[in-house]
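Listing S7. Sequence submitted for prediction.
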Amino acid sequence: MTVKELHRAPSLAKLYPRAVLGGLRKAGGETLPDTEYVYAGVSADPGHVAAYNRICGFRLTDELPVTYPHILAFPLQVALLSEPEFPFPLLGMVHVANRITLHRPLRLGEELTLRVRAERLRTHDKGTEFDVVTEVVTGGETVWTDVSTYLRRGAGAGSGGGKTSLAPPSAGAIWWVPGDIGRRYAEVSGDRNPIHLHPLTARMFGFRGAIAHGMWTKARCLAAFEGRLPGAYTVDVRFKLPVLLPSRVGFTSWRADAGWAFELWHASRPKPHLAGTITTP
């Protein structure tokens, strides 16, 4: 594997135009680049963490939210997916799942090393899937791992999760998701995918309007568990139908054998947005 050691975070302002141009020439492929990006000496900025916490619903503490390292590594992920040899264009890929394993709490002031690579290219009934794996290392120990699964739709693939006849479960909480949450989350995350920013740009990619970021919905759900989770666990989420902005959503959770299970639904229609589990070692 080729290791690319970085001395500063990649510039998203430069990467997004490259991603758009790359999408015009990429036609798919059968292999992922054998490359790993490594960025050492990273520490979280307290002001940025506080802004992230407010948008996602976490309390303000010196402990990093379990989803926050995904934000730190996001520029490396975009850089990898924008490489000329990457077989698929960045725009148009669908984030279908995310699994985070926290081995111990991470705190403000810790110096971290980020490692990002892509692996497990595989066929799917709607196209092709692959994983982007991110690791956080400190003191020679891997303390946090993130596996984001992306789908590149193939010819004839459907546009979403399809219709469902399920009835939504009784919600433990109803949340209002404002129309500007995509833009607000983009400011702290750097994820300025046009499907999240404005109805007009979202319609260019086949959506009826702007949709919430999947990682915001995951973070918002996990904020509801604060004070109830141990210092080490795995949270695994499948993103289902998108949250169209603005929306009212229903959150429900229940005890499972190995921890917790939770779901996010449209507040008044049988439309599942997210399903997840939290398991302990």
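Caption to Listing S7: primary sequence and predicted structure tokens for the chain studied. The CA atoms of residues 263 and 275 lie 4 Å apart. The longest helix spans residues 12-25.
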